[in-house]
Specification:
single chain; 294 residues; alpha+beta; Nucleotidyltransferase, domain 5; 3 domains; 4-stranded antiparallel sheet; 8 helices; flat
Length: 294
């Protein structure tokens, strides 16, 4: 095989990329014989994401989507704020009067969900406000408005992708133990970099209660390991050979010790599956762990 060509299809839009310009042209001609297609040239806008280029650099942005959202919600003239959520803010189910238009709340949360494709900075705040879709309160709506005011102050933040001349995979994992005042469940988060570029991130409230901070950190390490494996398989499929082992960074010394220690003590038996899973990936040299300061 001389090269590789990738197609991304969404409804009636197609993005084609690859390392063989001749074969890309042939593919576009073939598609035109089978379907009514129109070549729009270099990618500039796809699925609400704006794409800009300079030499060896690509920028992804949703600036237009942010401005349209601010105009729709009447926040174009709002006073900007510096953070998407107040520090140490804790929302509960019944901490204020019910909001008078729950459907409006749900619509706005749905639109913010779409924005998290490129805006990692609002992922955690979005995760919090999305937990109160059934019966939102005025305090929950105020938290939503703060996200909008934050976007007003930074509508054009984008993600930069450049060539760092390596294909190392790195993941930073973290968890807030007993983060929820409602049910004491934790929220986990991870960011994965390939070749120095951010390619995957998530913030998710878990469905279990952890009995220690080490357990909560270890759970997110197991989930992050799954994300690393998926990305490594994807890179292999598209013809890229990632460097091994991938680096998994964590700020909890106890969790790192459990990952390296094959002897399981009584207080780790309830997460033994996760322990075996991560430890085996370390033994296989798929990942290696490292400590990073909080």
């Amino acid at each position: 095989m001389s090269g590789i060509i990738l197609l991304v299809v969404y409804v009636d839009d197609i993005v084609i990329t690859g390392d063989d310009c001749t074969e890309i042209s042939s593919l576009k001609q073939f598609l035109h014989t089978k379907f009514h297609t129109k070549d729009l040239g270099q990618l500039k806008y796809f699925f609400g994401v704006e794409v800009a280029r300079s030499k060896n650099v690509i920028f992804l942005s949703q600036r237009k989507y942010v401005l349209d959202l601010l105009a729709e919600t009447g926040k174009l003239g709002a006073k900007p704020c510096g953070t998407p959520m107040a520090p140490n803010a804790h929302l509960t189910k019944d901490d204020a009067e019910p909001f008078d238009d729950p459907e409006r709340y749900r619509r706005l949360v749905g639109k913010l969900n779409y924005l998290t494709m490129t805006r990692l900075d609002i992922a955690y705040a979005f995760n919090i406000v999305s937990q109160f879709m059934s019966i939102p309160t005025v305090k929950h709506w105020a938290a939503l408005e703060q996200i909008l005011c934050y976007l007003k102050g930074a509508p054009d933040l984008d993600i930069l992708y450049s060539d760092h001349i390596h294909t190392r995979v790195e993941c930073f994992a973290d968890a807030d133990w007993v983060g929820s005042r409602i049910d004491k469940r934790l929220t986990t988060g991870c960011c994965v970099f390939v070749g120095g570029n951010l390619v995957s991130w998530r913030s998710k409230k878990q469905n279990v209660v952890s009995r220690s901070s080490a357990e909560s950190e270890y759970r997110v390490m197991a989930q992050s390991t799954c994300e690393i494996l998926w990305i490594q398989h994807l890179l292999a499929e598209v013809g890229l050979n990632p460097s091994f082992p991938a680096k998994l960074w964590c700020d909890n010394q106890a969790a790192l010790h459990i990952a390296l220690n094959p002897v399981y003590h009584e207080w780790t038996t309830h997460i033994e599956v996760d322990c075996h899973f991560v430890h085996e990936r370390i033994e296989e040299n798929v990942i290696s762990t490292g400590y990073v300061n909080t």
